[in-house]
Specification:
- The structure is a single chain.
- By secondary structure, this protein is an alpha/beta fold.
- The chain is built from 15 helices and twelve strands.
- The strands form two sheets. Strands 1-7-6-5-4-2-3 form a seven-stranded mixed β-sheet, sandwiched between helices. It has a five-stranded mixed β-sheet with strand order 8-9-12-11-10.
- Strand 4, helix 7 and strand 5 form a beta-alpha-beta unit.
- Helix 1 runs antiparallel to helix 3, helix 1 packs antiparallel against helix 10 and helix 4 packs parallel to helix 5.
- The chain starts with 6 loop residues before the first helix and ends with a helix.
Length: about 400
């Protein structure tokens, strides 16, 4: 029945498992282990577990399974594996499938921790990584080889908001038999159709929009049942990156209001960018949902809305950016995004500070760039707040 429901309905009801008590709110099965009726039953379960049979919380748990099934329905994936954080999802999806001698092609514009996994961790174990300008299809085509095992990119890059053509890159990758892994955080499960567009594996930091209220860390790896259960699950359950039952319950509650929140956030982002994009303090104003964005048409084709994040590049560099941040009264300074509260950060000194000055310049992360994750506050208050910050930065 849930396969025929729309996203908003599945976000509330998909994957629900009720105990004998018939609870309305999903139960938290706060247990690390499970009891067997007999020694023979224990032996049988370790040989092969059924859909409603569990062994150990690191392998699976009823509350966690509800979250996995629900978000898989939203994303249009066959299955999912919930992880302890978004970075556990990124590193788990890649490390589970790769071995020494494999080749990976990745977009260059990535979150700092994603770059660390690709530049430092995978290469340490003999994986070769080639970086490309993710918006340039000729670079993707030139970098892909017969031994390319995977491609990786953020569908919308953090924090410069470049939009990658999922269909085109997936088609090129599939010609050489590569698995397409997409970090889809900025698109959100509400606006995303990445699997329909050609992605094989989608990862989310559930810490962001899915929780959406700053409460818990979590992540999810989504893909085919074969990939999740034969490749991801063995790796994750033995290396310990699984989601806790309580976190899964928090994420289930977040999914119930996900569509309402991210639609309101995206609407606020568009209103703010329309109000301030011509402010004299700005060198650039970036938002995929606005026609001024160089990939606006692609963004609308892939997501329908421009997402919840915008970036502003202040002419006065870091001093102006810091003045802007310190002037804001509604938006809070933090390094998270996707929250119901508006959040602002200065990437060059926080999320991307480990990059060299040359790397930041290559990615367009200037000293004046600030990233604004729009919340669900009143749009007029947000516009007044951002405008006041820009006025102060002149």
């Amino acid at each position: 029945m849930s396969e025929n429901w729309n996203k908003r309905t599945n976000a509330v009801h998909g994957g629900t498992r009720r105990s004998q008590y018939g609870e309305v709110s999903e139960a938290i099965f706060m247990t690390q282990g499970f009891v067997y009726d007999s020694a023979e039953a224990a032996e049988a379960r370790f040989i092969e577990s059924g859909d409603d049979e569990f062994i150990y919380a690191r392998y699976g748990n009823p509350t966690v399974r509800m979250f996995e099934e629900r978000i898989a329905l939203l994303e249009g994936a066959e299955d999912g594996f919930a992880t302890a954080s978004g970075m556990a999802a990124v590193s788990g999806a890649l490390t589970a499938m790769l071995k020494a001698g494999d080749h990976v092609v990745s977009s260059r514009a990535l979150f700092g921790s994603c770059l660390y996994i690709l530049e430092e961790v995978l290469t340490r174990y003999g994986v070769e990584v080639t970086f490309v300008d993710g918006t340039d299809l000729t670079q993707w085509e030139a970098a892909l080889r017969p031994d390319t095992r995977a491609v990786f990119f953020e569908s919308v890059s953090n924090p410069t908001l470049e939009v990658i053509d999922i269909r085109a890159v997936s088609a090129l990758a599939h010609k050489v038999g590569a698995t397409v892994v997409v970090d889809n955080v900025f698109a959100t499960p509400v606006f995303s159709t990445a699997i329909e567009q050609g992605a094989d594996v989608v990862v989310y930091s559930a810490t962001k929009h899915i929780d959406g209220q700053g409460r818990a860390l979590g992540g999810i790896i989504l893909g085919t049942k074969e990939f999740i259960r034969k490749t991801v699950e063995p790796y994750m359950k033995h290396t310990g990156g699984s989601m806790s039952p309580f976190t899964a319950w928090v994420m289930l509650k977040g999914l119930e209001t996900l569509s309402l929140r991210v639609n309101a956030q995206a609407d606020n982002a568009l209103k703010v960018i329309e109000a301030v994009r011509d402010h004299p303090a700005l060198a650039r104003a970036l938002y995929p949902g606005h026609p001024s964005h160089p990939q606006h048409n692609l963004s609308m084709g892939q997501m329908e809305k421009g997402g919840t994040v915008l970036s502003l590049d202040l002419k006065g560099g870091q001093p102006a950016a810091f003045t802007f941040l310190n002037t804001l009264q509604v938006a809070v300074i933090s390094n998270n995004l996707g929250d119901a509260k508006s959040i602002v950060t200065h990437p060059a000194t926080t999320t991307h500070q480990r990059l060299s000055e040359e790397q930041r310049a290559e990615l367009g992360i200037t000293p004046g760039l600030v990233r604004l994750s729009m919340g669900i506050e009143d749009a007029a208050d947000l516009i007044a707040d951002v405008t006041a910050g820009l006025d102060a930065a002149l």
